[in-house]
Design goal:
The protein is 34% helix and 25% strand. The chain has 13 helices and 14 strands. Strands 13-12-11-7-10-9-8-14 form an eight-stranded mixed sheet. It has a six-stranded parallel sheet with strand order 3-2-1-4-5-6, with helices on both faces. This is Putative dehydrogenase.
Length: 361
C-alpha cells in the first residue's frame, strides 16, 4: 500500500462536501483530511465538526505551516484558485484544484513556475476523462481501432435560471473568468480534447441573450484539430431540456455519449459502419466518471512522484480552447492555437481586457 497522505481542503462549500469529501472517504486508506480552510470561519468550523476534521481555519498560510498537508484540494470560487494553488505549491504540497483551473493562461503558466520536477504538481478536476467508457475510447483512438477521427459534436446544453446568477461572483469576467464555456462546458471540452488531441483553429460566436450577466450565456464554435477532424462546440445555460452530448464519427464507427453531470457505460453507444465487425469494442469494466475515479489516478501519481493527468500541458488544453473561443467570438476572426501567447491581450484576460463589454453594447 502507498503512503497515507495528509489532506487539507480549501473552500468549505457545496462542491467540497458533495464531491470531494465522498471521494476522499472512498480512498480513506490513502488519504486523511486533517484540515479545512474557508474565508468564513463559522462555515469552516461547521464543516470540520460535521466531517470530523481536526483543524479548521480562515488562514491558509497558517494551516499549511501547522497541518503540513501533503495534498491540498482547492474548492474555492475561481478567482481564489491562483492564490490558493500557488501558496500550497510553495509550501511543498501537491494540489488538486476544481475547474476552471484559473482565470487566464497567464495565471496558469505562472503556477507552472511554482511546480518542481518530481512534485509538487497541481492537477485540475476533469473527472469525465476517467470513466471506463472514455478510457476505452481513448485506447481505441490511439490504436486506430475505429479508424481516423473525422467529425465531432461537443454540446453542453444546460439551464441556469436568473436566481443562479444572484451569487455575487457568478457571471463576471473578473471573478468567474467567463460564462458557460468556462464554468460549464469546460468538462465536455476537456473530455473531447483528451480524446482528439490538440486543436489548430477555432471560429466562434457568442452572445448574452437572456441572463443578466457580464459574460456570455451561450456560445457556438467550429474547431479544426491537428488530425484534420472538425468539431462543433456549443455551450449554453439557456436550454430547458438539459443534455451533455458528445459524438465522434470515425471512418469505421460513430461513438456517442449522452448524459448530464456524469456517465456510466450505459450512457455510451458504439455504432460500426456497415461491414465492420465491432468485436471487443465495448468496455469490460463499468467505472462511472467521478471525482473518486480521478482521485485514484492523482494519488497514484503522487505515490510515484510523477505528474498527474489533467495537469501541465495536458491540463492547459481546455483553457487554451476557451481562450481561443472568446478571442474569436469577440474579435470576429478565426484564432490559431499558436496565437495564444504572451503579448496577446486574451492571454492575460479572457475578455481581452474589457473587449466583450465594448462589442456587446
Amino acid at each position: 500500500m502507498g503512503t497515507r497522505h495528509r489532506v487539507a481542503i480549501v473552500g468549505a462549500g457545496g462542491i467540497a462536501a458533495g464531491r470531494h469529501l465522498p471521494a476522499l472517504r472512498a480512498h480513506a486508506d490513502r488519504a486523511e483530511v486533517v484540515a479545512v480552510v474557508d474565508a468564513d470561519g463559522d462555515r469552516a468550523a461547521a464543516f470540520a465538526a460535521e466531517w470530523e476534521v481536526e483543524h479548521s481555519s480562515t488562514d491558509l498560510a497558517a494551516t499549511l505551516e501547522v497541518a503540513r498537508p501533503d495534498l491540498v484540494v482547492v474548492c474555492t470560487p475561481p478567482a481564489a484558485h491562483h492564490h490558493g494553488v500557488r501558496a500550497s505549491l510553495d509550501a511543498g504540497a501537491w494540489v488538486w484544484c476544481e475547474k476552471p483551473p484559473v482565470l487566464s493562461l497567464a495565471e496558469y503558466d505562472d503556477l507552472a513556475e511554482h511546480e518542481r520536477e518530481g512534485g509538487p504538481y497541481v492537477g485540475y478536476v476533469f473527472q469525465h476523462r476517467f470513466g471506463s467508457a472514455a478510457q476505452t475510447l481513448r485506447r481505441q483512438i490511439a490504436d486506430g481501432t475505429l479508424g481516423r477521427p473525422l467529425v465531432g459534436v461537443c454540446h453542453t446544453l444546460w439551464y441556469r435560471d436568473h436566481a443562479y446568477y444572484a451569487v455575487p461572483w457568478r457571471g463576471k469576467w473578473e471573478t468567474e473568468g467567463g460564462g458557460p464555456a468556462m464554468g460549464h462546458g469546460i468538462h465536455q471540452m476537456d473530455l473531447m480534447l483528451s480524446l482528439l488531441g490538440d486543436w489548430r483553429e477555432i471560429r466562434a460566436l457568442m452572445g448574452t441573450l437572456d441572463r443578466d450577466v457580464a459574460t456570455e450565456d451561450v456560445s457556438i464554435a467550429a474547431v479544426a484539430f491537428d488530425s484534420g477532424a472538425l468539431v462543433s462546440v456549443v455551450n449554453s445555460v439557456l436550454s430547458p431540456r438539459q443534455e451533455s452530448y458528445l459524438r465522434f464519427d470515425f471512418t469505421d464507427a460513430t461513438v456517442e455519449v449522452s448524459h448530464l453531470y456524469g456517465y456510466d457505460n450505459s450512457n455510451w453507444t458504439w455504432t460500426p459502419r456497415e461491414g465492420v465487425e465491432p468485436a471487443g469494442w465495448l468496455p469490460t469494466a463499468d467505472v462511472p466518471s467521478s471525482h473518486t475515479a480521478q482521485l485514484a489516478a492523482f494519488l497514484d501519481a503522487m505515490d510515484r512522484g510523477e505528474r498527474p493527468p489533467a495537469s501541465g500541458a495536458d491540463g492547459r488544453r481546455s483553457l487554451e480552447l476557451i481562450t481561443g473561443l472568446y478571442e474569436s467570438a469577440i474579435t470576429g476572426r478565426p484564432v490559431l492555437r499558436a496565437d495564444l501567447a504572451p503579448g496577446n491581450p486574451f492571454y492575460d484576460h479572457l475578455d481581452g481586457g474589457g473587449r466583450y463589454q465594448e462589442v456587446s453594447r
